Amino acid sequence: MTDEISTGTGFGTFETQDQVLVALSGGVDSSACIQILREQGFDVQAVVIRFSPAHEAAVKAAEAVAQQMKVPLTVEDCTGQFEREVVEPFCAQYCAGRTPNPCVLCNPHVKFTVLARVADRLGIHFLATGHYARIAEENGFYYVRAALSAERDQSYMLYGLSQEILARLCLPVGEFEKKDIRAMAAEAGLLSANTPDSQEICFIPDGDYAAYIAARGGKPLQGRFIGPDGEDLGAHQGVWHYTVGQRKGLNIAYGSPLFVRRIRSDGNIELARGGGEFFAGIVLTDAARTDGKALLPGQRYGVKVRSRAAAAPCTIQSNVNGLLTLRFDEPQRAPAPGQAAVLYEGELVRGGGVICEMLEE
Fold first, then answer.
1. What pLDDT does 207 receive?
2. Is 202 one of the annotated active-site residues of the chain?
3. 78 is annotated as an active-site residue
């Protein structure tokens, strides 16, 4: 069997009808993914992954959608793997004053590895999800490509996927706007057509991650607020309540608005006046290109320092001892340690790493 992955379709064109395994959450995007692939002539099966006890509602929703759409469904439990690879690092990083993104942790280490594992067990080669992104092939390598919808684009979240996964992956939803996906689901009469978008951390439904971590026995670093001129502004409530760039919730009476500039390893939090939360560059750990090629000084990229940020032009300054230093063309606001920094060339995700430090002018 041969396949030609097009940069325009978001899934392969194949010589014969092929099977695809779709990660089904019960929401509108993954349901529409099944609908699109079926209309293209694919034989679709689905899997819903139970990541944590908080995912029981998603499992039930996926079962209802699969029954309605008459799609064979596998329920796969990966609570132990999710606990090790996502929940424990998430809690440890927040306790240390970093700001991790659980989706970025989950996608390469849990969600897509489990999806591929189930597909292999079922004898299915191709994988699909309802992410708003696309896949492109270039010179024999596969890359995540930004979605047609800039507003919904989730390419940032997928930067860590391997070539082995990308070569098998179909992302048909990435060719559509959200309103078109909802209209498609409504026209098909799908149960998920009006399902609200998920906003919270999936394993913490109420969004109170500090309470969640505390209930697990976690304790955040404690320390003091350090003012813009080095003054002691009093004790803070624990580093997990703050992130770089934060203004609200500091509860400090001061003559001008203050922002979190830096959370130090000793637990103290540096504050700055407006503008002081901008930085000239960042240092990354675990940085790599999707294709395995070298990241070299002088190379130019666009870098996103958070999922909804615009890609900021930057230059690699150095890559020494596992630390990649990037300099922005223009200072960027609030790049937070623990967050991913994702490298783009145009619409293509070339790689990325994890922010560990911010650079002064």
1. 86
2. yes
3. no
